[in-house]
Amino acid sequence: MLSKHTLLGIVFFLCIHLLKAQSYEGLLTDNYSGVHGIISNPANIADSRLKLDINLIGVSAFFGNNYLGLNMSDAFKDFGKTFDEAKTTPKTNNFLASNLDILGPSVMFNLTEKSAVAVYSRARLFLNVDDINGASIDKEGGFNEDEDFFINEGDVSGEINLWTEIGASYARVLVDHGEHFLKGGATLKYLSGIHHAYIRGTDVTVDYDATSRDVVTTGLLTYGNDASGSEGDGLSDFFTFGKSTGIGGDLGFVYEWRPNHQDYKLTDANGNTYLNKGVNKYKLKIGASITDIGKINNKKGEEETYDLNKTQSIDDFDGMDLEDGLSNNFDTTGPTHESADTGLPTALHANVDWNVVSKFYLNLNSDVNLQGKHKINSNHIRSEVALTPRLETAWISVYSPISLMQQVGFRWGLGLRAGPFYLGSGSALTALFGNSSKSLDAYAGIKVPIYQNKLKDRDGDGLKDDVDECPDTPGPIENNGCPWKDTDGDGILDKDDNCPNEVGPKENNGCPWKDTDGDGVLDKDDDCPNTPGLKEFNGCPDTDGDGIIDQNDRCPNQPGSKENKGCPDTDGDTLVDIDDDCPTVAGPVSNKGCPEVTIAVQKQLNAYAKTILFDTGKATIKPESVAVMVDIIQILNEYPNAKFTVEGHTDSVGSNESNQKLSEARANSVRDFLINEGIAGARLTAIGYGEEKPIASNTTNLGRKQNRRVEINLIK
Asked: What is the pTM of this model?
């Protein structure tokens, strides 16, 4: 009979391939995860809620497949039946996977307000089967040598890798513009390969004939490991450190939207501003990172490619393991090579974290493979999307990741962080309550977290409680955190009340309204607060009683109409008296309300003036001319704004000089008479022309008489 261990070992190892599940699922979404944050994104440790975090030990283990579906609730009844009665789903591309992630002593701490570093130690193991034909493992107890069987594996591949990491991470705040916050980080890690083995098969088949007991195999198989030729059980090679080394790295960025960033800035009594580093400040956080960039350069390992096209007896495989079965029964296709380098499971991680309300968050995370699936000895992840609601505080967080993993399907887990302890699973609830769970995982650990100081402001007034004189009642910083008083109870705070001890309205800055002029109308309603007035005129006076308040009345002491702005128009010439030079006589506006001197009036004046008689050779007006002067005065009074020249003229008898003086004297004599009788002096100008302007011949008595005259002419 073909050895069950030999045949299943060959089939199993032909199909080893990596499936990487996210380690510590749920915990890595926590803002208080501390040093664990570098696993998914090194930028996480900048502006951390912890100022120091020391991880003592943490272990995360995972198993997943698409062949075996378990009902873990049966394990509490009969553990043995859990696997015996498990539902199987044979496919041509079945896979099995296992992952062990041990985070050893590690520390994270803040360098400055904007930067942080972490140093960590880590061991990682990946073991899995991929693209295996489910019919190959759907046999209970091996294969019966008395029956024919055929196995068509096709193209298969697989790896097992175990290595350690010593890493250092640095992260810092790149942008802090209040509402917009960005940080970045990088990890550099030294890799030490401990053990690796891999295979890559092409068109592999196994055909067994029970009658002849011959087994016909086909295809090519490449097999490499780091323990070939070891003696004994190989443990000495398995735990040889430093034989294979490499350098790896991670790079990440995190953006935070902080619409209420001002709420997280507190002030002390001196006005100094402090950022409350002990609390989360974002409404939305978006992270992106690339992890596990690099490879391990394997040394002293061997790789052989075997030609499986051969017919031989099944007895040739009896009692042999995989390596012996290949080397003793098949020929190689070429020389032995050094084993291939181990490629790290390079992946892209995108993360969105939404602070729904208070301490409740909703996280959406996706992991995308960036490593070629069929590249030999290269680890890679299967894409996964997880939605994780969580309740988060400094000392305790509870989270429940709900995820879809490529080919594994739906997973639902539960996790808890309580002070220094953390444990959880990304599939615990699916395994317990589902009837066909295809993955199992769990993690647990212990750490020493030192949290950032959380500045307290119980009343939310922006002033720290330790300097707030009223820590339970909001108040302004300028009043030491206490609310302003309202001594007079008028609804206006004392700081804004100009009369804090007297009740008054807001529109008067807290002071009662005054009545400055004592007219019974309050200043707020008084259009003339400094002048007593009438209530019907909003406190303004109307001295002349014409219905127009004094401040709008051009003639406040004379009644007038509204059309004339409170002024009278006595003569009705449309020009109010105050602007009318002749208020009692109607006249055109162009002449300032006075009548205009006509040609007829001008002739009348000169007719009168020519009859004025003087003593011979003198400027004295004879008494019989007084009546004429009265007539002239009457005419001048009818045109009060008109101005006139009083002109004196003589005949040619006598010298020019004496005639000039006589004419000037007689003109001034008439002007003085008119002024003495009430005619304004500004209206009259006296001029003497002597004998220069005769109106008749000086050769006759009649002519000389006509030339001796006085004229009164309008100045135009």
From this structure: 0.65
